[in-house]
Amino acid sequence: MLLPPLSGSAQTQAPLAPTEARAIAEEAYVFGMAIVEHYKALWAYGIEPKSPKYCGINKLCNDTRLYGPKDTAVVSANNDTIYTSGMMDLRAEPMILLVPAISDRYYSFMLVDMATDNFAYVGSRATGTEPGTYAITGPGWKGQLPKGVTRIPSPSWLVFAIGRTGVNGEVDMPALRKAQTGYTLVPLSTFVGKPAPPAAPNIDFPPFVDAKTADGATFIKYLNFLMQFQAFPAAEQTLLDRLARIGIGPGRAFNPADFSPEVMQAIDEGINAGREQVRATADNLGTQVNGWNISPGNAGEFGQDYMTRSAAAWKYIYVNSAVEAMYPTAGVDGSGKPLDGSTARYVLKFAPGALPPVDYFWSLTLYDAKTQVPIENAIDRYSIGDRTPGIVKGADGSLTIYIQADKPATNAANWLPAPKAPFYVILRTYGPKPAMLDGSYKVPPITRVNGFDLARTIR
After folding, report:
1. Is 268 left (phi over 0), alpha (psi -120 to 50) or beta?
2. pTM as predicted
């Protein structure tokens, strides 16, 4: 059910000075940016029928192809898994997620609450390879579940489910589609064959607004609307009380006229200051090792770390929890110089026994720095990794990946084509082992080949 709007207005509270209003508004943006930005996916997948991604509510929809250079709407597209997505509304009753036995490939369903925390996983790592039946229940649900159904309590009434199923190129697509047909999402009443409970009240969903550009009043209106679908923990009550000073609260109506022009101007300034804080943090999110940017260890499980939560939403919303996958990213070589296929050739060399330590798979995907999408190339290869056919190791067991615009004269199976332009790469590691998680494993630097010489390549 929806939470009731808070009563009263700013005029019934103690006098609010502009300096206090500005500070609270700045804090509010850092707290709420991820919540408002999250609405983009809910709107596109569950609410707006004109969206090319529209699926509806309480249904799952499967992508059916790998992303490539023509998919310009998706930045840094994953070339290793096919997505399954769905928005759930748990206000009336729980939803039942059924998955089949999947032992021939990696898969996962990441369940995301309104604050963009990954509150649970179903899949290869989290629940195993056997068939499973899971009930996702809303906050405070007290009902009974049938035997054999595992309960997953959600901290929010609206949930976004993101499924990822591993695929090994186009030849593997028929087998992948077979796995996808086993994914099912139904209401509890349908699952048990009983009459459905009374429907929850209709929600008047407002059109999506971008949290990165919304003005102060618009941002707060959307934040208030979306907060009513999340049950916030007791640890956040003091913060929520403070935000209420400028009219922020679950389901609360926000009226700029409740504030003096000076206070409303201060609120706008605070929202803008918070926006700049988040933007700056997003540009420097994570740690740098050998030219690689390593995501924060609490990615996807932010808790009360609101700045990291919002910076992640700004940079790469819906990041996997580290225990599920890690994504070292590099736009520079080991010496800190930007990667550019027009001026250099590069190698990424893994020493013997030093490949990325993972339980499932790893891959290296390359993207144009400007467009953030894969690059058209002669061999239609956009990623390379442990599943790449024909990849060649050295006599000592080392592995060298050649990252360059032209085909190398030897070991072409180890070639990741680069554009004659600036680019960046993402090393995806699914099921990272402890050495990856604790940072004791260091991804080797991307090295510029000395004496760049196109004569040494086959064109």
Report:
1. alpha
2. 0.89
CATH 3.40.630.30 given to domain 289-458: no
Does the pLDDT value for residue 305 go beyond 90?
yes
Cβ(405)–Cβ(346) below 8 Å: no
* pLDDT band at 117; cut points 50, 70, 90: very high
CA distance 403 to 387: 17
Q: Please say whether the structural domain 49-192 has been given the CATH code 2.60.40.1610.
A: yes
Q: Which amino acid is located at 290 in the chain?
A: N
Is 346 within 8 Å of 447 (Cβ atoms)? Answer: yes
CA distance 289 to 218: 39
User: Distance between CA atoms of 316 and 278, rounded to whole angstroms?
Assistant: 13
3-state secondary structure of 45: helix
Domain 10-41+207-283 = CATH 3.90.550.10: no
Q: Which two tokens stand for residue 16?
A: 């609010």
Residue 377: C-alpha distances to residues 38, 69, 366 (Å): 34, 9, 11
Cβ pair 388, 413 in contact under 8 A: yes
420: left (phi > 0), else alpha (psi -120 to 50), else beta? beta
CA distance 23 to 31: 12
**How far from 176 is each of 64, 124, 126, 132, 173, CA to CA, in Å?**
9, 15, 20, 18, 5
Position 76 scores a pLDDT of: 76
Domains in the chain: boundaries: 10-41+207-283, 49-192, 289-458
pLDDT single digits (tens) 273-287: 999 999 999 988 889
Cα distances (Å, whole numbers) of residue 301 to 99, 152, 309, 333, 379: 24, 16, 8, 30, 38
**First-to-final CA distance of the chain:** 63
